[in-house]
Structure formats: structure tokens, C-alpha cells
Amino acid sequence: MNHPTLTLQVATPEIAPSFSQLLNGTIQSIALAVNKVLTATYHAVYDDAQEGDELTLLTAPLASTAEVQSLYESGIIDIESALPAALHSLGATALEVAGAVKRRKQADASGSDAKLLEAQNQAKLGDADVLLKAAQTGKTTAETKVVEQNVAKTKAETKKLNHDAAAPHATPGATAAAGGGGASSSSSSKK
Length: 191
Prior knowledge:
- By secondary structure, this protein is an all-alpha fold.
- It folds into 2 domains: 17-112, no CATH class; 113-159.
- It contains 6 helices and no strands.
- The N and C termini lie far apart (144 Å).
- The mean pLDDT is 75.
């Protein structure tokens, strides 16, 4: 008979190192008591449970990311210790942590050099960054040309408007209307 799997993970925020040590001890004590309660409840609910079946509350010691990083970089802890602690501080589940450790072991076993891969990735990122900046520069240049054209057009329009406003100019057809219909006759007779 398949019984449900219960996995509880306690995730807590980063806190001061001295306080985290005290809290780690307290959480571990609580986890042990919870383990006993969970196991007793499991056996009470499932009559066919084996004597050795046990439910456990999985907890991980609290550690700040900076502490884990400094311990790893100084060589005090290896990647198999640092990786779970770092992933737990990010809220990864036990299954995700186990998968990450397994992938890291496979990468180490296959002989892939992590530093070489990181350098290659950095080079790719650098190349992509150069291409992006070149594209942005091209776009900015094109936009600048459009703005310059708009400025030239606006200057020409302003010059025309200023010219038109400075002196009244006769519009075609307006002078003929002002003269009285266009044809004037003068007759003089001498007697």
C-alpha cells in the first residue's frame, strides 16, 4: 500500500550569525520532537505501517549567503556542503537541492572545468553586450538624424512665418478687388 509522503521544509530569512546559531539549536530540538509526533501519527493512521517507517521534518541550519560564500572561497567547506546551504537560503526544496548536487557531481566527473565554462560564458556575454551597444548606438544615431531634420524643418517654418508677419504682402487677386472692379474709365471732354 502506498502511503503519502510528507516533506516539510523550514525556510527562514537571513539573520545575524550569533542569533542564527542559537536559533539553529532551537529549530533542531523542535524538529526532533516534531519527528516523534509525525512518526507516531503515521503509525496510528496506517495500521499496516512497518515498524521502521519514520517521518522526518527536514531542516537545514540557517546561514547567510555571505557566510556560505566566504566559507567556500576560503576552502573550509567544499561544494557539496556549500551548494545545499546556498540553495536552501534561496528557498530551494530538498529535491531541488539533491538534483543540483547530483548535476554538480556529474559535471565534476565528466571533467568539465567550471572556471573554463564560466570564462566562456563571460566571453559570450561580453560579445552580446558589444553587439547590443552597437545596435543602441545605431538607433541613437538614426534618431538624432530625425531630430536634426525636424529642427531644420521647424526653423524654415519659423523663418517663413516671421517673414510673412513682418510685412504685409498682397495676396494675388486682392489688389484687383481693392481698385474697384478692375477696370477704370476716365473720360475727359473739352468743350
